[in-house]
């Protein structure tokens, strides 16, 4: 097979949608065989995957030809939900309303409004800090839940791990490196608890089998018998978790 040179692509291009210019991110993939335009969950910027021999000119033509499809998708995309007062966000799968506690300092706390029976997440300080404090609270309980599951599951499996990291990834819910470093999306804490438990089991299973072979899935389903139901939930509802608290 001969070698060929590929020109560097700009990070973004713009396409005319008639009423406005839309920025699109370009991402070259050496294994891709065709151009692909997609709307990544939780990211306001569409992406065009460019194959190994793809060019900027062809990417621009491709974007222009799909301007109608792109307009339709952008118009039908659900609105993001900011971490601000009176917003309703899921915590461990249950909706909570964000409210100011009236205190200048302290920790975020869950409370209940007696008359309506509504669950509240009470946040101290100014409302301008709601975004940071809500994210800090979610990351904190995500860390607690994930570490608890990983400790239990690794003991059950008889395997050790190196470390646990929380990220805000859009392409995957978790990962496991060859040296036992586990990484998870903190957004899993907004899903029902059994979904987070499944993802923890999935990555712990990779400590024994770093592939998706039948043997891996046997281990995963032994650790999380609800694996198939959790996968179905993530496929149907997972992208909605990315709508919350976008910067």
TrEMBL record:
Superkingdom in the source lineage: Bacteria
One Pfam family recorded for the sequence: YgjP-like
Record domain YgjP-like metallopeptidase: where: 33-237
InterPro entries named among the record's database cross-references: UTP_pyrophosphatase-like (IPR053136), YgjP-like_metallopeptidase (IPR002725)
Protein name: YgjP-like metallopeptidase domain-containing protein
């Amino acid at each position: 097979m001969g070698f060929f040179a590929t020109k560097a692509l700009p990070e973004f291009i713009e396409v005319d949608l008639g009423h406005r210019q839309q920025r699109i991110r370009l991402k070259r993939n050496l294994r891709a065989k065709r151009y692909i335009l997609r709307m990544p969950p939780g990211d306001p910027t569409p992406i065009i995957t460019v194959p190994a021999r793809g060019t900027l000119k062809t990417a621009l033509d491709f974007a222009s030809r799909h301007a109608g499809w792109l307009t339709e998708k952008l118009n039908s995309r659900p609105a993001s939900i900011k971490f601000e007062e009176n917003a309703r966000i899921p915590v461990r799968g249950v909706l909570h309303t964000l409210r100011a506690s009236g205190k200048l300092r302290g920790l975020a706390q869950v409370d209940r409004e007696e008359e309506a029976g509504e669950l509240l997440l009470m946040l101290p300080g100014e409302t301008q800090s709601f975004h940071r404090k809500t994210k800090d609270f979610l990351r904190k309980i995500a860390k607690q839940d994930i570490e608890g599951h990983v400790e239990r599951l690794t003991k059950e499996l008889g395997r050790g791990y190196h470390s646990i990291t929380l990220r805000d990834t859009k392409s995957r819910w978790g990962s496991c490196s060859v040296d036992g470093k586990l990484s998870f999306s903190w957004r899993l804490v907004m899903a029902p608890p059994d979904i987070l438990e499944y993802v923890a089991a999935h990555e712990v299973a990779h400590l024994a089998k770093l592939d998706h072979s039948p043997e891996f899935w046997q281990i995963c389903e032994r650790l999380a018998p609800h694996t198939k139901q959790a996968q179905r939930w993530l496929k149907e509802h997972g992208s909605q978790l990315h709508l919350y608290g976008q910067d």
